[in-house]
Amino acid sequence: MKAVFIGDVVGNLGCEALAALLPQIKREYGADIAVVNGENSAEGNGIDARSAEAIFAAGADVITGGNHSFRKHSVEEMYERCNTLLRPANFGEDVPGNGVCEVDMGAYSVAVVNLIGTAFMTPVDNPFKCAEDILKTIISRVIIVDFHAEATSEKRAMGFFLSGKVSAVIGTHTHVQTADEQIIDGTAYLTDAGMTGPRDSILGVEKNVIIEKFRTYYPKRHVYADGDADICGTVLEIDQKSGRALSIERFCKTYKKTK
Ligand code: FE2
Q1: pLDDT value, residue 44
Q2: Distance from the CA of 46 to the center of ligand 1, in angstroms?
Q3: What whole-number distance in Å separates Cα of residue 189 and Cα of residue 162?
Q4: Nearest to residue 165, comparing CAs of 192, 127, 134, 191?
């Protein structure tokens, strides 16, 4: 089977680019399932019901989250009713939603696990111990993990920790695609899938806002940039019987904004 994994969708432009290109990307790679990180897909920040619906309408089968998963209250009701809209599992059980789902594909199923790192991020439950617990409950052979984390070291540690136990560990959150894709003992690994959002930006945000923040340390409201967009991600080929990854390929496509 083949899975497409798309890195952090940013704002309206990211949703627009996804709607325009995801169907074509799924066709091009013959993808059976698409997993999309959507934690920054709402305009301003976070994910809301509108942006989550837009990502599903574009062709995502599962949406994953991160540190901005609970910024917008409008999405909380959706976490409860939609089991393919995930938030990191290691936020624990006292907040809305789930961090794991298993998608029935007919002859087999695909589990998607969403975890968040703790290095340079808000400390939540330990993602490594959480992963161990989750793996005891999963039935699917094919297991795709979105590890939403800041530190490259923590992401690589998770890749090695879960190698041989899951089909893929794909990093999100830093919005810059890394070039370290590899297969570790049957587990496809990539430190960061990259961003789906405005190219002429700093991680999706209007670049002059960020430059001025660094230059003056004066707080400024983040505004998403506009223009052409990148749509970055990776395609995974996985043996559905064993769950072992056969190949991993990165891609970064351009969405030309027409108006
Ligand atoms: Fe994030």
Answers
A1: 86
A2: 9
A3: 10
A4: 134
